[in-house]
């Protein structure tokens, strides 16, 4: 009997692809946490919009949905270029992106009309020019404030301070309604907007 994949919109089975491997869904009694992670990754919902949890013991996921994460040798440049980060969904003309040294994607962001700002480095020079030193100092100061804001954002909105459920990355409801942004993008956007309405993280030396 062919084993069909339970992932939504997946039509593969053992008859169509004899070399296909199918993995049974982990048992909820013996491996509840592992089963939950699988169900979240499957991104399937029941008729009430809740996380799908089948009662049958014969539920399979085909090998086409198992991928490995980026290895430790993968550079940041490689990961960004092979992700959805370099798109107009996240960047617009006139945006400025702050990054570390070695993040050589200036041309990639220029295509989007955005500017990549990185600290200056000597590369082939004995020392930095006075202008490069001044620019690097300004960049470092800005970075400190950005890290403080990110830290405050995580401490204030606890949904961002730990691992996120995979179903927040992309939900079936988002796909049905043809939304370009996943739920997590909207959550971060709202949290950041609320953060911008609060007081500044910068110390005002002239405050009385």
Automatic annotation (TrEMBL):
<dbReference type="InterPro" id="IPR027806">
    <property type="entry name" value="HARBI1_dom"/>
</dbReference>
<keyword id="KW-0862">Zinc</keyword>
<feature type="domain" description="THAP-type">
    <location>
        <begin position="1"/>
        <end position="81"/>
    </location>
</feature>
<dbReference type="Pfam" id="PF13359">
    <property type="entry name" value="DDE_Tnp_4"/>
</dbReference>
<dbReference type="GO" id="GO:0008270">
    <property type="term" value="F:zinc ion binding"/>
</dbReference>
<keyword id="KW-0863">Zinc-finger</keyword>
<keyword id="KW-0479">Metal-binding</keyword>
<dbReference type="InterPro" id="IPR006612">
    <property type="entry name" value="THAP_Znf"/>
</dbReference>
<dbReference type="GO" id="GO:0003677">
    <property type="term" value="F:DNA binding"/>
</dbReference>
<keyword id="KW-0238">DNA-binding</keyword>
<protein>
    <submittedName>
        <fullName>Uncharacterized protein LOC117536183 isoform X2</fullName>
    </submittedName>
</protein>
């Amino acid at each position: 009997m062919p084993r069909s994949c339970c992932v939504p919109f997946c039509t593969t089975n053992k008859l169509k692809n004899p070399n296909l491997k199918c993995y049974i869904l982990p048992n909820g009694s013996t491996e509840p946490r592992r089963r939950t992670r699988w169900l979240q990754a499957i991104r399937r919902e029941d008729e009430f919009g809740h996380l799908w949890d089948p009662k049958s013991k014969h539920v399979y996921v085909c090998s086409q949905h198992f991928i490995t994460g980026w290895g430790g040798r993968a550079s940041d440049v490689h990961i960004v270029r092979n992700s959805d980060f370099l798109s107009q969904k996240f960047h617009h003309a006139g945006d400025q992106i702050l990054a570390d040294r070695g993040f050589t994607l200036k041309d990639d962001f220029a295509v989007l009309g955005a500017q990549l700002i990185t600290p200056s480095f000597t590369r082939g020079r004995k020392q930095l020019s006075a202008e490069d030193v001044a620019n690097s100092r300004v960049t470092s100061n800005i970075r400190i404030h950005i890290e403080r804001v990110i830290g405050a954002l995580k401490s204030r909105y606890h949904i961002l301070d730990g691992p996120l459920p995979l179903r927040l990355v992309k939900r079936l409801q988002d796909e049905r309604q043809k939304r370009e942004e996943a739920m997590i993008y909207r959550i971060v956007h709202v949290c950041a907007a609320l953060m911008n309405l609060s007081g500044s993280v910068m110390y005002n030396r002239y405050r009385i």
